[in-house]
Specification:
The structure holds 2 protein chains of 2 kinds. By secondary structure, chain A is of the alpha/beta class. Chain A contains 12 helices and 14 strands. Chain A folds into 2 domains: about 220 residues, P-loop containing nucleotide triphosphate hydrolases (Rossmann fold, 3-Layer(aba) Sandwich); about 70 residues, no CATH class. In chain A, the strands form 3 sheets. Chain A has a 6-stranded mixed β-sheet, with helices on both faces. By secondary structure, chain B is an all-alpha fold. The chains are: A alpha/beta, B mainly alpha.
């Protein structure tokens, strides 16, 4: 199975949201990493055939997904960024409703609902109205509905939003377990969510794929750019104005710093092993500085 | 006798019970698990027929919605039966008032159809096997069928009771219905309108006001009621009916097209 994204673009008037992206995806986990507004959600919507591209095409095993229609949607499991739900439904009713939309037989819907609700730890609250659920519970329900038809292509837009650390770990394990024969595409701006499970990480910026590769391959590009040093609080303040500090930890009167820089920030700085988080910060420093309002979900 | 039988049975030599064979037990469990897995997997690959999906929507629409439909039609019938309308003019006034049932029926259906927008379900429903396109069409058909039957029954009853032509009564009851449907579908197609349900309610409220006003007659017998229901305006009614049906059809086609694939994310 190959999902080919061929020079796909999406423009709204003069604004280009996705700019000529090409990729060939095979079974495995793909992490789409990027700041808000990078074009992740638009790309995922196009992959799910919700949004039509302005140019380019997406093909599954050489066949355009538009012409595949319901046959393609039958292979799809999708968790949108803004996961909608009918608040007056119980989790069980909601799962049965989505199962009906996915064309599952009532018997399959019943078994699969029980199985998945147990997997996401919602079985004991399955008869409660969704409106009474916490954000994390709703998100888990969203993940469960995406898996109802045992999809071959699983697209999860910000799946870990609202999950607590324990739930995030459980989600990662569940996805890692599922990905044997599936194409799993998950977008996030939370680096550790993809670092440990994604076979391939695609970094998106301003509608383009900035770089892609395994976590090791990507962090290799940062070698020689990450420094560690210990400074006083006053020196730290001065250094912070000119350098990108990726992490700082107070230890007594001193501060242990992790700095991203092409040159040694201070004379006694030592090189540190780069992480994906360093890479993210390095490439998205402007976005993190102006990380104010623009959610990508808010369309142009 | 029975006790003896029990005693005798106890004395009967029984074949030796074989010691539990752990290996065979394990094999049995494994085979059972395998059969279950294969069955579930095959079950998961099966897809329901569209007819089954269509009928499933009856329950997903919810009993409250169907109850509202039934209650509205029944209320109209009871109201008409209890209101004395001996003169022809009074009957037309009553009909103008009772025809408010038509847009209200349309409103109940349209508000239900707008739930996908209201609860941000469009994106999710679009990505499924049956897709929002067929979901919307199924529900719309169910509502249209129910309302068609309900309004026809109501027109039939009026026709018998008032000894009027069924065609005229159908025209007076169906036109507000199709106008409501066309208006709401047009509103559904407007990406800028986020709250489709409220927009439909607003539009239908305007229509209702017009209908209520059209039930008034002046003391000399003139007024909007006479103008609209006097018999000479049938051609206009027919033209409005045809025009509203055509508008509804084209708006529905546009909407279904957008459900296939969106050009922008404004609808989501």
């Amino acid at each position: 199975m190959e999902l080919a994204i061929e020079a796909i673009s999406k423009r709204y008037g003069k604004t280009t949201v996705v700019d000529g992206i090409s990729a060939r995806l095979h079974p495995g986990i793909y992490g789409l990493l990027g700041a808000n507004g990078a074009g992740k959600t638009t790309l995922m919507r196009m992959i799910c055939s919700v949004l039509s591209p302005t140019s380019g095409r997406i093909a599954l095993d050489e066949q355009d997904i538009t012409s595949l229609g319901e046959a393609y949607r039958d292979l799809l499991g999708y968790l949108p960024q803004e996961f909608g739900y009918y608040p007056d439904f119980t989790a069980r009713e909601f799962m049965h409703y989505v199962a009906a939309l996915k064309g599952l037989t009532p018997s399959a819907a019943k078994h699969r609902t029980a199985e998945l609700l147990e997997k996401v730890s919602l079985l004991d609250v399955q008869h409660k109205k969704i409106r009474t659920y916490s954000g994390g519970m709703k998100q888990r329900l969203g993940i469960a509905q995406a898996l109802l038809n045992d999809p071959r292509i699983l697209v999860l837009d910000e799946p870990t939003a609202g999950l607590d650390p324990k739930e995030r770990v459980r989600f990662r394990n569940m996805i890692a377990d599922l990905a044997k024969d599936k194409i799993v595409i998950l977008s996030t701006h939370i680096v550790p969510d993809v670092e440990s499970i994604a076979h391939q990480i695609l970094i998106m910026k301003k509608g383009r794929i900035l770089m892609s590769g395994t976590a090791q391959e990507l962090t290799r590009s940062m070698e020689g750019l990450v420094w560690a040093c210990r400074l006083s609080e006053r020196e730290t303040e001065q250094l912070g104005r000119g350098f990108l500090i990726s992490n700082l930890r107070h230890e007594g009167n001193e501060v242990e710093l992790r700095i991203i820089s092409a040159v040694p920030p201070v004379a006694d700085a030592v090189q540190a092993t780069p992480t994906l988080e360093d890479l993210y910060l390095y490439h998205f420093r402007e976005e993190s500085e102006s990380h104010s309002s623009t959610r990508e979900g808010a369309r142009p | 006798m029975k006790k003896n039988l029990h005693e005798h049975l106890k004395e009967l030599p029984l074949p030796p019970v074989p010691a539990p064979d752990e290996e065979r037990k394990r094999q049995t469990f494994e085979t059972a698990r395998h059969i279950l897995q294969v069955t579930r997997k095959q079950e998961l690959l099966q897809r329901t027929r569209f007819r089954a999906f269509f009928l499933q929507q009856l329950s997903y629409v919810g009993w409250r919605v169907w109850l509202r439909h039934g209650a509205l039609l029944l209320a109209a019938l009871l109201f008409a039966a209890r209101m004395p309308a001996d003169a022809s003019a009074e009957r037309w006034q009553l009909l103008a008032l009772l025809s408010t049932v038509s847009p209200l029926l349309a409103l109940i259906g349209m508000r239900m159809l707008a739930r996908s927008y209201a609860f941000h379900m469009v994106e999710l429903e679009m990505s499924t096997f049956y897709s929002i396109e067929r979901l919307f069409l199924s529900r719309l058909c169910l509502f249209a069928l129910t309302d068609f039957v309900g309004l026809t029954c109501l027109a039939g009853w009026f026709s018998v009771e008032w000894e009027q032509q069924l065609g005229h009564l159908l025209l007076y009851l169906f036109t507000p219905f199709t106008v409501s449907a066309a208006g709401c579908l047009w509103l559904f197609n407007q990406a800028r309108i986020r709250d489709k349900a409220s927009a439909c309610s607003g539009f239908i409220a305007i229509l209702l006001v017009f209908q209520v006003v059209s039930s008034f007659r002046l003391e000399n017998g003139g007024g909007l009621n006479e103008l609209l229901y006097g018999g000479t305006a049938s051609g206009v009614w027919l033209a409005v009916l045809v025009l509203s049906i055509l508008t509804a059809a084209s708006q529905l086609q546009k909407l279904l097209h957008s459900f296939r694939r969106l050009e922008s994310g404004d609808f989501l």
